[in-house]
Amino acid sequence: xxxxxxxxxxxxxxxxxxxxxxxxxxxxxxxxxxxxxxxxxxxxxxxxxxxxxxxxxxxxxxxxxxxxxxxxxxxxxxxxxxxxxxxxxxxxxxxxxxxxxxxxxxxxxxxxxxxxxxxxxxxxxxxxxxxxxxxxxxxxxxxxxxxxxxxxxxxxxxxxxxxxxxxxxxxxxxxxxxxxxxxxxxxxxxxxxxxxxxxxxxxxxxxxxxxxxxxxxxxxxxxxxxxxxxxxxxxxxxxxxxxxxxxxxxxxxxxxxxxxxxxxxxxxxxxxxxxxxxxxxxxxxxxxxxxxx
Length: 293
Known about the structure:
Layout: H1 3-17, H2 32-58, H3 78-100, H4 105-128, H5 137-157, E1 162-168, H6 178-181, H7 185-191, E2 196-202, E3 214-223, H8 230-235, E4 241-250, H9 260-269, E5 276-282, E6 285-292
Antiparallel strand pairs: 1-2, 2-3, 3-4, 4-5, 5-6
C-alpha cells in the first residue's frame, strides 16, 4: 500500500484520540468511564478504517503466504518519512487521549507511543499477505522511529519540541503515470511523492529566546520520480534528485485561546507546514521560494 493511504488512515483515526486535546490529567486516579469511552470509540473507528482499507486495497488482491518485500530503495525514501510522520502523530494523539482519561503523563506517553506503533502494525501484516504488496521492514522501522521520536522528546523535555510536518504541491509528473501518481488533486496529494515534502519544525522559543509564534523548519523531498527506482528513471530520461529545505514556520498553537475547539483545530492544522519563505538546496543549485508549500 502506498504511504499516502497510510496518511489518510492517520486522519481517519485522529478524531477519536484527539477528543480532548487540551485537557489536563489528574494523577490521583484514572477516569475509567472516559477510558472505556476512548477505547470503544477508538476501536470502532479503527475497525471501520481497517475494513474500508481492506475493501479499497486488498479485496481484489490474491492472498499469499506472508512475505516481506524490500522497498527501501524506492522513491528516494520519501515514503518512509510518511510512516515516520503518521506514527509520531498517532502516538502524540493517543498520549493526549490517555491523559484525558487521567492516566499519569509518563504512562500516557509510553502507552501512546506503543499505541501509535501497534495501530500501524496490522497494515503491514495485511500488506504481507497481499500479493500486490508485501510487508516492508523499512516501513516497520519508520513506524517505530516515529513513535520513539515522540516518546524520546517526552522523556527528555516532558513535551515535543520538534514536530514532523507535511506539505504538498502539484507537479507535472502525475500526468505521466496517473494510475500510479494520481489523476486529481486529492489522489495526487496521496500518491505523487514528487509533490510531498516532509519537515521537522523546531519550536525555537523552547530552546532560545525567540518569537513564540515562529518556528524554524528543515525539510526533505525529491523530484523527477516517475518510477520508483533511480535506474529506471535514468534510462527513460528522468532526472530524479533529492531536495533539502530551510524555512520559517508560523506556529498557530502559540495563539492564546480558551476554546478547546480552536486549540484542537490549531493542533490539527499545525500538522501541515504552512506556506512561507523557503530556501531549497539540491544538485540543481540553490533556489529561493517566496511561499513554498
